[in-house]
Amino acid sequence: MSLLTLFSFSSGAAYFGSLELIDAEQLNKEREKYIVLDVRTAEEFKAGHIAGAVNIPHKNISEHIETIKTWQDKTIVVHCKSGYRAGKAESVLTSNKITNMVHLDGDFDGWQDNNQPIVKD
What is the pTM assigned to this prediction? Predict the structure, then answer.
């Protein structure tokens, strides 16, 4: 398993791999600017997810590229449970020329650790 490294730059922006990170506070403050893409399994998503998130498991991302390309008016916030699967999904999206993405800082584990609200189906 490869590990993606988190870097901070003098600008104050943080990056996950090559993507900028967004934290829960910023996401909640400007929610209308974002589409949250949860790349965990359907079972994980049903057990709890961020309100309004779209679930496309990372293994199925390539099947949904055309739909995702229609989201160009928003920034896509990609996350999984802890980062590994999101990194895989982000690679597929990037290779398909989708660049309007950021990575959720801490992923879903971090969201829960920060006592952010979740919904269950």
Answer: 0.87
Share of the chain above pLDDT 70, in %: 85
Q: What is the DSSP letter of 76?
A: E
Model confidence band, residue 6 (pLDDT cutoffs 50, 70, 90): very low
Structural tokens at position 121? 């189906």
Contacts of the segment 44-50: beta carbons below 8 A, 24+ positions apart: 44/81, 45/121, 46/120, 46/121, 47/120, 48/112, 48/118, 48/119, 48/120, 49/108, 49/118, 49/119, 49/120, 49/121, 50/79, 50/108, 50/111, 50/116, 50/118, 50/119
- C-alpha dist (Å) from residue 89 to 3, 38, 46, 61, 120: 14, 10, 19, 6, 23
Bigger pLDDT: 119 or 7?
Answer: 119
- Answer for the pair 90, 104: CB distance below 8 angstroms, yes or no: no
